[in-house]
Design a protein that fits this description.
Blueprint: E1 3-7, E2 10-14, H1 34-41, H2 49-66, E3 76-79, H3 86-97, E4 101-105, E5 135-139, H4 150-165, E6 168-169, E7 172-173, E8 178-183, H5 188-197, H6 218-224, H7 228-232, E9 236-239, H8 245-252, H9 258-268, E10 273-276, H10 278-291, H11 295-311, H12 313-316, E11 320-323, H13 325-332
Parallel strand pairs: 3-8, 3-9, 4-5, 5-8, 10-11
Antiparallel strand pairs: 1-2, 6-7
Length: 334
């Protein structure tokens, strides 16, 4: 509607006001907050705070991406000693984030055109819709830097590069999949040690740090045998630390850890009361330390100690059984 104005007796028509356009705010996509995921991981994992924080951020983003958020993905390369929680962290995060999980190993795989199990064939059974935002765990990735056949090694690295970057196989697009490659990288420690021990120019050698893998660089990984293109597809480097005796004891006492979970299983499912004396617990720790397998050594020891009771469960049902240091020593024989 035209409005009029009268200024000093003059009649001046005014232009109509333009209707304001409503600006629609972009809907915020909710997801699992990193701190929430971190609090859940603390119930299962001990002694890997920095690794947990890094993974929680990446998995939080992936959970938002699965709900429609426009945020780029960042693949990760995670290295650390066996039994330090690499696989457990990813499985637990996928469970809480409700993300599909697939673990494949680089060991024993070949690239297209070579004989043997093909790396890409590991994904032929994935549903294209359900697996779109899958977390793909490529374990023992360090073996790709140690292959005797250099051509096969490089070809397989190229396939992992294509997969992590985004390709299409068996009608499955991998562009939205989060890739986390893991390995122990045992020989990487020697490369880091040599770098710290060797003088550069007129400078003196640096003190060699205790946890060598924590100080590994991309240049160290290049020397290990990975192509620059490979490392470029894994933007986040995450390391796990070796577990000391105190941390192993904390893992043994975790409410959701192997020991307490098995005690509950024997009680509720088999009607057998199981108790572990302090001496038996100490022996389990010694077993894990001797094996050098971290939490994996604890799980192995618990399984060995309970195996006979479960096999002969009919004889123990309705009774209480006590596992002491003497029994643990006889079974584990450290």
């Amino acid at each position: 509607m035209m409005r009029n104005a009268y200024i000093l007796g003059a009649h001046i028509p005014l232009m109509p006001r333009k209707a304001k356009k409503k600006v629609r705010k972009k809907k915020r996509i909710t997801g699992f907050r990193p701190k929430f995921l971190y609090s859940k991981l603390k119930e299962h994992v001990v002694g890997q705070d920095e690794a947990m924080k890094s993974l929680c951020v990446l998995f939080s983003r992936q959970s938002r991406r699965a709900r429609g958020a426009d945020v780029p993905k960042t693949n990760a390369l995670m290295y650390g000693p066996p039994g330090s929680g690499k696989t457990l962290m990813m499985q637990t995060l996928c469970e809480y984030c409700n993300l599909p999980y697939r673990r494949v190993t680089a060991t024993g795989k070949s690239s297209s055109g070579h004989t043997g199990p093909n790396f890409m064939d590991s994904f032929e059974d994935i549903d294209p819709d359900d697996g779109r935002f899958m977390v793909v765990h490529i374990d023992e990735i360090d073996k790709l830097g140690l292959r005797g056949e250099r051509d096969m090694e490089e070809d397989l690295q190229d396939e992992v590069i294509a997969f992590a970057e985004g390709t299409e196989i068996y009608d499955i697009k991998t562009h939205d999949m989060l890739c986390v490659a893991t390995g122990a990288f045992v020989d990487l420690e020697e490369i880091v040690r040599e770098r710290y021990s060797s003088p550069v120019g007129f400078t003196q050698p640096k003190d060699v740090p205790e946890n060598l893998l924590a100080h590994a660089t991309r240049q160290d990984l290049l020397e290990y045998g990975f192509k620059p293109e490979f490392l470029a597809r894994f933007g986040r480097m995450v390391h796990t630390n070796p577990l000391d005796e105190r941390q192993l004891r904390s893992i043994l006492d975790l409410r959701k850890g192997k020991l307490n979970s098995m005690i509950e299983y024997f009680s509720y499912e088999l009607d057998i009361g199981i108790t572990f004396t302090n001496g038996a617990r100490n022996y389990i720790i010694a077993y894990a330390m001797e094996a050098g397998e971290g939490a994996r050594g604890i799980n192995s020891a618990v399984d060995e100690l309970l195996e006979n009771f479960e096999f002969e469960q009919e004889d123990h049902r309705g009774k209480s059984r006590r596992i002491d240091a003497r029994y643990a020593r006889r079974i584990l024989e450290v």
